[in-house]
Write a structure and sequence with these properties.
The structure holds two protein chains of two kinds. By secondary structure, chain A is mainly alpha-helical. Chain A has one domain. Chain A contains ten helices and no strands. In chain A, helix 1 packs across helix 6 and helix 3 runs parallel beside helix 7. Chain B is mostly helical. Chain B has one domain. The radius of gyration of chain B is 20 Å and the shape is globular. The model of chain B has no long low-confidence stretch (mean pLDDT 87). The chains are: A mainly alpha, B mainly alpha. Chains A and B meet through helix 7, helix 8, helix 9 and helix 10 of A and helix 5 and helix 6 of B.
């Protein structure tokens, strides 16, 4: 970098957002094996359920939606812990805090990258898991729609909580203790939509609740995440 | 600045708060113990047995105040957490963090007494009823706040992070409650109302109200004691703490 670069204008907000997103996706792509681990984890956990509960088709079909949902939730939780760790260790996180662009915008890019890298592969494998557990094919679109909204909500909520624990050691178990109680409404509404669709009942209401919560979370979570990072790193 | 405002600002100073808490704590303890004795005597001896539940209903004199306190303390904790995050006074952090274990204890008491009452009445210790489940989630949120506080090496930083979590929890708690109600409900509806007549006879009601006030005073007394200990630990390098230790040692 040459000396006269110092006088250059800082990139505008949109460029900074795109820059963080591109960097995160590129890092994930260079270590694409890591991105597959949550998927593998979800597949294995979902496979364990028939072993524990017996291969009876009626039972598995009834619990398929809930099992897939919880498996995906736990797989996302596993990937959360490392969300800011690399950046904290090499100092990039402090640079993000000091950047002229709003921190909330930069963490939004991080949230989007996390969702694309972790949740999207899980969403792709979820219908397969649901099919293996015997979920009726007619319910699959409802499951996918509910999971689309639920994973986005979990990504937003999870990023905020991870930001709070970023400066602590051994944050993995703590993160589970913090995230899972707060995720109860997400699980209830997502599983409620799938259950209603399975019984032939109207399922739009719980999905609409999830969508409303997502609209609220998209606005509030980046601001909360930025505040959380400033609290956690302020020493 | 008038006298009250001056006193309020002085309370934000740890040495002054330490003295103030030490001055009011015997009174809070005395009132809490006295009211508990009166409330329990009224509830366990004077109140008539319930025509359906017999003597089993008497557990409400512990259960209902504990359940109310579990929410009340969360409210107090969330307000001081809010103040701690926005204006960063040390006392608000201490009060929020020392409220959390007391609130968690009341939540646990409400859960345990509720399940003991559930066995003779509903025929089971545990059921996935809406209020039981949201009380359990409340306990988890308390534990998350306590856990986050202790995960930091710097207690002030931990207090601020845990305060922020308490605020997130406060936003989420009503959502948890209503989503769980939507999911399943078996618990009886509201019996005691602030406005309009309650569905409970006065001879059963007054011990309940006395117990409710007693638990408030217990919370105050316990909070004062916990905050005093926390302040001594947080400010252990300061002069006023060495002075307190010296005088208390001299007193024996």
């Amino acid at each position: 970098m040459s000396a006269h670069d110092n006088t250059a204008q800082p990139p505008n907000a949109a460029n900074a957002f795109a820059g963080v997103l591109r960097r995160d996706l590129l890092l994930a792509w260079r270590r694409r094996g890591d991105a597959l681990l949550p998927v593998l984890y979800a597949v294995i956990v979902a496979t364990l359920f028939p072993f524990a509960l017996g291969p009876e088709h009626a039972l598995l079909a009834r619990i398929a939606g809930g099992v897939v949902l919880l498996t995906v939730l736990l797989a996302m939780l596993l990937a959360l812990d490392a969300l800011f760790r690399g950046d904290l260790e090499d100092g990039a996180l402090e640079q993000m805090l000091l950047a002229p662009q709003p921190l909330a915008l930069l963490v939004t890019a991080r949230m989007l990258a996390y969702w694309l890298v972790t949740a999207l592969p899980l969403l792709l494998v979820a219908p397969l898991l649901a099919y293996m557990l015997g979920l009726p094919p007619a319910v699959q679109p409802v499951l996918l729609l509910a999971m689309l909204l639920a994973t986005a909500l979990l990504a937003l909520l999870g990023t905020v909580l991870t930001a709070l624990t970023v400066a602590t050691r051994r944050s993995g178990m703590l993160l589970a203790l913090m995230l899972l109680p707060l995720a109860v409404p997400i699980v209830i509404f997502a599983a409620g939509a799938v259950g209603a669709a399975q019984q032939g009942l109207p399922w739009v209401a719980p999905v609409a609740w999830l969508a409303a919560a997502l609209a609220l979370a998209v606005v509030l979570a980046p601001l909360a995440c930025a505040t959380a990072l400033r609290i956690a790193l302020d020493s | 600045m008038n006298a009250f405002k001056l006193w309020y600002h002085k309370l934000g100073s740890p040495p002054y708060f330490y003295l103030f808490a030490g001055y009011i704590r015997p009174w809070l303890w005395a009132i809490a113990l006295l009211l508990t004795a009166v409330g329990l005597y009224g509830g366990l001896v004077l109140a008539p047995p319930d025509y359906q539940q017999g003597d089993a209903f008497r557990i409400i004199y512990v259960h209902v105040p504990a359940a109310w306190m579990s929410l009340f303390i969360y409210g107090v904790m969330a307000v001081s957490a809010f103040i701690a995050v926005i204006w960063k006074p040390k006392m608000a952090e201490v009060l929020a963090m020392e409220s959390a274990p007391i609130g968690a204890a009341f939540t646990l008491i409400a859960l345990v007494t509720g399940s003991l009452w559930g066995k003779p009445t509903w025929g089971t210790y545990w059921t996935w009823d809406a209020r039981l489940t949201s009380e359990l989630v409340l306990l988890f949120i308390y534990l998350g706040v306590i856990g986050l506080y202790h995960a930091f090496e710097n207690p002030r930083q931990g207090a601020r992070a845990a305060s922020f979590l308490a605020i997130i929890g406060a936003v989420n708690l009503p959502i948890v409650h209503y989503s769980v109600v939507w999911w399943n409900t078996l618990h009886q509806g509201t019996t005691v109302r602030y406005f309009g007549p309650s569905d409970i006879v006065p001879s059963m009601l007054w011990p309940l109200l006395v117990m409710t006030i007693a638990t408030k005073f217990y919370y105050g007394a316990s909070l004062m004691d916990r905050s005093r200990v926390a302040l001594l630990s947080l400010e252990r390098g300061k002069d006023w703490v060495s002075e307190v230790v010296r005088t208390e040692r001299a007193d024996g």
